[in-house]
Amino acid sequence: MRYLRVISLRTWIILLILTGIAAVFMLPVIFIISTAFKPMSELFLYPPRFLVQNPTMQNFTDFMQAAEAAIVPFSRFLFNSVVVTGASVVIALLFSSTCAYAFSKMNFPGKGWLFSMVIISLMFAPEAVVITRFLIVSQLGIINTYFGHILPQVAVPVGVFLMKQFMDQIPTSLSEAARIEGAGEFDIYRRIIMPNVMPAVGTVMIIVFQGVWMDTSSSVLFMTDEAMRTLPYFITTLTDGVVAGVARQGAAAAAGLIMFLPNFLIFAVMQKSMIETMVNSGIK
Amino acid sequence: MIRIARKPKPEKYRPTLGETWIEMRKNKLAYIFIAPFMVCFVIFIVLPVLSATVLSFTQFDSISRPQFIGLRNFMDILTRDLLLMTHVIPNTFIFAVAVGPIGYALQFILAWLINCVPKRLKVIYTMAIYLPSIAGGVLISVVFTVFFSGDRLGHLNRLLLNLGMIVEPIAWTTDRDYLLLVMIIVTIWGSMGVGFLSLFAGMQNVDEQLYEAGRIDGIRNAFQELIHITIPQMKPQMLFSAVMSIVGALRAGQIGVQLSGQNPTPEYAGQLWQNHIEDFGFQRFELGYATALSFVLLLFTYAITRLCFRFLGAKEDE
C-alpha cells in the first residue's frame, strides 16, 4: 500500500466521491445477489432488509420447480438460449472480422461509401424500425425457427467498426510483405491479422453476447411458439407485472443471477482487452 | 506575420465506368470478404429503414395491399394525434434530454474522476460503474420493480418513510407523477456501457507529454487541463460515445412497460415514442402510420447525430 501515501488531498476527495457513486451503481447488483439467497420469511419481512440474513438455496429450487411446472420445460429455454447465443456470437464474429479486414487492408471501388453506410447505421437503433423488421422476418419465412433468432442479430455494425479501427493500427507493411511472399488474402486474414486483433475480437464477443443473451425482443416479436422462446423471455414471465410481486421475487432474483453470471464472468476475464479496444473506438 | 499558403486541393481523379469495373474485378476477393456481413446488413438493417420510408407514405393494415396516400400520415402526426401531442412528445422530450445530455455528461464526469485516481484502483471503479449496464433489461426489471415497489415492502419507500420524508408509501412505478422519473433514473443507471468505456479509454490514452507541455505553457488547474488538452485530444472517442448514448436512449423504449407492468403505461405517463410506434403497429395494425412515426424518429436521431458530428467530428476537408 506504499503508493497510497503519495496521494494528494484532492485525490482523496475524488476517491471518496467515486466510492460513493460506485456504491450506488453497485446497488442493483448487490441487491440481486442478496435477494437470490433470501429465504421466504425474509422476503416478506417487515420492515424489509436490504441484505440477506440467513442465506438459503431455496429460491433456486423454487425457480427450478416453477420452471418444471411450466408447459415448456426450463431446459428447453436454456437450450434455445445457448444455441441462439452461441451461433450468433460465432457468426457475428466471423462476418464482422472478414468485413473489417476488407475495409482496413484491401482496396476496392465503393469502399468509402460502404463504410460510411456502416457508420451511419451505428446511429439507427434497430428498435426504431421494429415493424418493417418484423415484416421482413415474416416474409423470409423464418418465424419460429432458430434462424429467426440468429440472422437478424449477426449484422453488428459496431463490431465491424471496432474491429476495423483496431486493424488500422496494424502496420500495412505487415500484410504487404506477406502479399509479396505470395500469401493469399485469406491466409493473411487468418494468420497475420486475426492473431493481432484478439482484444477487438474479445470486445465484439462481449457486445454480441450481452446483446443476444439478454434479448427478449426476438422471442416476443419473431416467435409465436412458446417452445422457441429463450431464457430471458421466460424470466420476464416470472416477474410479469407487480401482481406476481413479492411471491416470485426470490425465484426471479435467482433466475436473474443465473442469467447475469455468464455476462459477469466474460467481462471480468476480458475487461483488459475491452479497454484496449475502446482506445481505438474514436470516430474520426 | 507569416501566412501559410493553403495547399490547393488536388483535383479528384474520377475513374470512368470501365475503369471502375476493371478495378472491381481485380479486387473481387474483397467483395467476397464483405459479402456475408453486407448481405445481413442490407436485409436486416438497410431494408427495414428503406421500407419504413416507403410504407410511411401509405395506408397499410398488414392484410390488404398498402395504398399510397402521400403525406397524410405526416399530416396526421402533426394535427390529429392527440395522444402524441399531449403525452408522447413531452414524455419523450423529457426522457431524451435527461438520459441523453445529462447521462452523457455524467459518463464524462465519471470517466474523468476515475482518470484522477491511482492506476491500480481505476479498474475497480470502472468495473463497478460498468456492471449495471451488462446486467441488462431483465435484471434491471427484476431488481427495480422490487426496489421501487409501491407498498411498504419497497426499499425506497421504506427508506423515505424511515427518514420521515414521506407519510404514505408512494406507488413509484404506477403513479403517473413518478413513473417517468423512475424510468430516467433506471435508464441512466444502466447506461454506463460501451460509450462510457470508450470515454474512459480515450482519457487514459492522452499523451502524458501534452500535459507537461501544457504546464509549461501556463495551464494552472485541472479544469483548464480538461478544456484545453483532454477534450480536444479525445474528441473521436467522445463522438463514438455520443452516438452510443443516442442509440441507447432510443433502445430504452421498453423500460416504462417493464417497470409498470402495463402497456400502455398508467395514464400514458411513461409512454415514449417507441411505445407509440408499437401501439399503432402491433395493437391497432395501422402499419402505415406506425412506420411514419418510425421515419420521423429516425430523422430526428439522424439530425441529432449530425449535430454531434458538427461539434466533435473531424472537419470535412481535413
Number of strands of chain B: 2
Name the strands of the widest sheet of chain B in spatial order.
Answer: 1-2
Structural class of chain A: mainly alpha
Number of structural domains of chain A: 2
How does the SSE layout of this entry go?
The complex is a heterodimer of chains A (284) and B (318).
Chain A: H1 9-36, H2 40-43, H3 58-69, H4 74-105, H5 111-122, H6 130-139, H7 146-154, H8 157-167, H9 172-180, H10 185-196, H11 198-213, H12 217-222, H13 231-239, H14 241-278
Helix pairs in contact in A: 1-14, 3-14, 4-7, 4-8, 4-11, 5-8, 8-11, 9-10, 11-14, 13-14
Chain B: H1 17-26, H2 28-55, E1 58-59, E2 67-68, H3 72-79, H4 82-115, H5 119-147, H6 155-163, H7 179-189, H8 194-204, H9 208-216, H10 222-233, H11 235-251, H12 255-260, H13 273-283, H14 287-312
Antiparallel strand pairs in B: 1-2
Helix pairs in contact in B: 2-14, 3-14, 4-7, 4-8, 4-11, 8-11, 11-14, 13-14
Question: How does this structure look, described?
Answer:
The complex is a heterodimer of chains A (284) and B (318). By secondary structure, chain A is an all-alpha fold. Chain A folds into 2 domains: 2-60, no CATH class; 70-171 and 198-238, MetI-like fold. Helices cover 73% and strands 0% of the residues of chain A. In chain A, helix 11 (198-213) runs antiparallel to helix 14 (241-278) and helix 13 packs across helix 14. Chain A is globular. The two termini of chain A are 40 Å apart. The model of chain A has no long low-confidence stretch (mean pLDDT 85). Chain B has 14 helices and 2 strands. Chain B has a two-stranded antiparallel sheet. In chain B, helix 8 (194-204) runs antiparallel to helix 11 and helix 13 runs antiparallel to helix 14 (287-312). The longest helix of chain B has 34 residues, at 82-115. The radius of gyration of chain B is 25 Å and the shape is flat. The model of chain B has no long low-confidence stretch (mean pLDDT 84). At the A-B interface, helix 1, helix 4, helix 5, helix 6 and helix 7 of A face helix 1, helix 2, helix 4, helix 5 and helix 6 of B.
